[in-house]
From TrEMBL:
Active-site residues from the entry: 277
Sequence ranges assigned to domain Phosphomannose isomerase type I catalytic in this UniProt record: 7-154
Reactions it catalyzes: D-mannose 6-phosphate = D-fructose 6-phosphate
Cofactor comment text: Binds 1 zinc ion per subunit.
Cross-referenced Pfam families: PMI_typeI_cat (PF20511)
Protein name listed in UniProt: mannose-6-phosphate isomerase
Matching CDD domains: cupin_PMI_type_I_N
């Protein structure tokens, strides 16, 4: 195992305390710190020490795929690390978004490549993209702190009553559609996100002026304060409003509309940066493309509890083979664990101190530090007194 140094993304919604506290740095940080990336995504690759320099993990994986990935991972995913491990820390709501499935991502990327090439040939800059790569992006997020999120459509009849409570006549067609059940979800989402721009101030003003109490009204007021005149604040009422405790997780498959609101968590995903946004953001919004990839179905139970697989070891099973995530807790009761997980492996220490050993060398990590081991390593042994998350491919 060897140290892995991940970059921190400074998106405006990031926390100025969560990642700094995890890494034992001074609080508040100089600016917002939204995500710590621990992988080989070209958008922000982590780095590894080589001959006195820190080199991109992307370059190492590309140049030595057999060593880093192994034959099975290379054959299945090509010469790229198929997963990306992150620490995400939100102090403000993120965008209302969804991710494409594998077929949609491949087709969308190819179409945009063709259009970008045409634009370049005409001497014009390529338009901003929806698809930065041809890969899907299913995600699993495990809460490190109390975590708040919107995730998946709830019962549309409940959403209809929440919107009807504001008594705004303009929302009547949306309420009527939702009272028809899941078949009305597409109509409702299209109507809200496609609300005429010139009329959005008036719509949100009427909603916010209504004398309505309760968690639904509080949520709309909070989102409208962060993103004035954004109808995404009303779309939020169509989704499950979740509050996770540390150790609880949410699974976000393709086409699942979601938005993080606050908190810090460990997130693992397929190594893609394809995001289709519908609102609650100053970034690119493409409602038509978002509607094309959304799955308009009720998500019964988005929360996933950890499953114990041995003393001191939990995991969250997911129906994809791009990644798997295990949590390890070692200490007096469980001094060490051995994980026969295939490489490559990325380990993040999330508390205390742990020593990781894959047979090629032991490395001690403290909170906020990470390590990586190649596919050639032996079963991973973790000891010490602390907690860590182990990311691998999901191939078995």
């Amino acid at each position: 195992m060897e140290p892995l140094y991940g970059p921190i993304r400074d998106y405006a919604w990031g926390s100025r305390s969560a990642i700094a506290l995890l890494q034992g740095r001074a609080v508040p940080s100089a600016g917002p710190e939204a995500e710590l990336w621990l992988g080989a995504h070209p958008g922000a690759p982590a780095r590894v020490d080589r001959a006195g320099l820190r080199v991109s993990l992307c370059d190492l994986v590309r140049d030595e795929p057999g060593q880093w990935l192994g034959q099975r991972v290379s054959e299945r995913f090509g010469n790229r690390l198929p997963f990306l491990l992150k620490v995400l820390a939100a102090d403000a709501p993120l965008s209302l978004q969804a991710h494409p499935d594998a077929e949609q991502a491949k087709a969308g990327f190819a179409a945009e490549q063709a259009r970008a090439g045409f634009a370049a040939e005409q001497g014009r800059p390529a338009a901003e993209r929806n698809y930065s790569d041809p890969h899907h992006k299913p995600e699993l997020l495990v809460a490190l702190t109390p975590f708040e999120a919107l995730c998946g459509f709830r019962d549309p009849v409940e959403s209809a009553e929440a919107l009807a409570a504001f008594g705004v006549p303009e929302l009547t067609p949306v309420v009527t559609a939702l009272r028809g059940g899941p078949a009305g979800l597409r109509t409702a989402v299209r109507a809200l996100l496609g609300w005429p721009v010139a009329q959005r101030d008036e719509l949100l003003g009427s909603v916010l002026a209504a004398s309505v109490d309760g968690p639904d009204a509080e949520l709309v007021h909070r989102l409208a304060k962060a993103y004035p005149a954004d109808p995404g604040a009303l779309v939020a009422l169509l989704l499950h409003h979740l509050r996770l405790e540390p150790g609880e997780a949410i699974w976000m498959p393709a086409g699942n509309l979601h938005a993080y609101l606050s908190g810090c968590g460990v997130e693992i995903m397929a190594a893609s940066d394809n995001v289709l946004r519908g609102g609650l953001t100053p970034k690119r919004v493409d409602v038509d493309e978002l509607l094309r990839v959304l799955r308009f179905e009720v998500l019964d139970d988005p929360v996933r509890a950890a499953l114990p697989v041995g003393p001191g070891v939990d995991w969250w099973p997911v129906p994809v083979d791009d990644f798997a995530l295990h949590r390890v807790c070692v200490g007096a009761d469980v001094p060490s664990v051995t994980l026969p997980l295939p490489g490559p492996r990325v380990v993040l220490c999330s508390g205390g101190s742990i020593t990781v050993d894959d047979g090629a060398g032991a490395l001690t990590l403290v909170s906020g530090e990470a390590a990586i081991g190649t596919a050639a390593g032996e079963p991973l042994r973790i000891s010490g007194a602390g907690e860590g998350y182990v990311a691998t491919s999901g191939l078995r």
